[in-house]
Amino acid sequence: MKTWQLAVVIAGLALAASAADKPMDKGDGIVTIPSSHSVDETVARLKDILQSKGITLFAVIDHSGEAAKVGMKMPNTKLVIFGNPKGGTPLMLAAPSIAIDLPLKILVAEDAQGKVWISYNSPQYLKERHGLPENLVANIAVVETLATKAAE
Q1: What is d(CA 88, CA 82) in angstroms, rounded to the nearest whole number?
Q2: pTM of the model as a whole
Q3: pLDDT band, very low/low/confident/very high, at 26 (cuts 50, 70, 90)
Q4: 52: domain range?
């Protein structure tokens, strides 16, 4: 392999590695970012952030814990469900179908290699899916900030 070819391969690998730590939306409306913490620490951080912002925590669903109850094993996986009627109600009045995607959710899951990921519905995807007016997207865009802060 020539030196310039090796340089191209190394540059490509570096780009791929840096992309792995950036938000990903594979076109399905789900954004996934890496967390610097365990699943439980990430969920605790999310809970603290929600409380500090006055956002209601409706539930934390422990998918892996429920799987264990029926004798099945899966990596640590938790779904955090939260919202704020002041933000959600105008959305549902403008586009009633968005109620299927509210309250907002953040999935915190460990992969087979032990890496923790945070996933959420893209606000832009929800806007397009439900035909929301642009001025109401800010009501759901908070999910991006919450996920990013919890991941730090």
Answers
A1: 11
A2: 0.81
A3: low
A4: 23-151
- Rounded Cα gap, residues 70 and 73, in angstroms: 9
Q: What is the count of structural domains for the chain?
A: 1
pLDDT tens-digit series, residues 67-118: 999 999 999 999 999 999 999 999 999 999 999 999 999 999 999 999 999 9
Structure tokens at 71: 């004798």
- Residue 137's DSSP bridge partners are none
Cα–Cα distance for residue pair 90/138, rounded to 1 Å: 11
**Residue 8 resides in a domain:** no
Q: What's the token pair of residue 106? A: 């953040």
Q: Which two tokens stand for residue 50?
A: 């929600």
The dihedrals phi and psi of 80, each to the nearest 5 degrees, come to -100, 125
CATH code, domain with 81? 3.30.310.70
Token reading at 26: 């594979």
What are 24's two structure tokens? 């990903």
